[in-house]
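Colleagues,

For the teaching module next term, I've prepared a clean inverse folding example: a structure given as tokens, and then the sequence designed for it. I'd like students to try predicting residues themselves before seeing the answer, so please don't circulate the second half yet.
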């Protein structure tokens, strides 16, 4: 327990996100605990998606945007945005930086010059592969920190939660 007058991590979280906690105030204890666990997991996931690593690899969000280009040599901004579940303006802003950094190229479509096609450069493909390798390595290390029972319980639970999120 924190000393009187000392803010705990939970208190600081409540100060930063009062709307979440105000909405949870009327919940029973079990549901409120679930909401808090969900919030913490979501926050950690968002931080991980935005994080770039010191080795210069892509962020997870950038990798998600570009992953369709591992299956197709060129895709439109709209197709990449749809696959990554981001808006077209967000995809465009991300692609501006990725093009500037030499990870992708843009070219007009020969059939419709209003359409812009995106392709990975060799450096972009290398960076994308490195990002997914690092991500899988990280998940492997994380899974080893769980007991066999926790891993066995987590897998179907994560799949179920993902399905529930699809219904949001």
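(Answer key — instructors only)
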């Amino acid at each position: 327990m924190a000393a009187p007058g000392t803010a705990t991590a939970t208190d600081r979280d409540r100060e930063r996100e009062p709307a979440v906690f105000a909405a949870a105030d009327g919940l029973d204890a079990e549901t409120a605990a679930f909401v808090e666990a969900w919030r913490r997991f979501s926050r950690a996931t968002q931080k991980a998606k935005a994080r770039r690593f010191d080795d210069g690899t892509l962020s997870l969000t950038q990798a998600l945007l570009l992953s369709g280009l591992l299956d197709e040599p060129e895709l439109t901004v709209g197709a990449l945005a749809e696959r990554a579940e981001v808006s077209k303006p967000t995809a465009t802003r991300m692609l501006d930086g990725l093009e500037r950094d030499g990870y992708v190229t843009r070219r007009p479509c020969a059939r419709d010059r209003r359409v812009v096609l995106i392709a990975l450069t060799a450096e972009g493909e290398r960076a994308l592969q490195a990002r997914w390798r690092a991500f899988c390595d990280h998940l492997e290390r994380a899974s080893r920190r769980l007991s066999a029972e926790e891993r066995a319980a987590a897998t179907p639970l994560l799949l179920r939660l993902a399905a529930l999120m699809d219904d949001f």
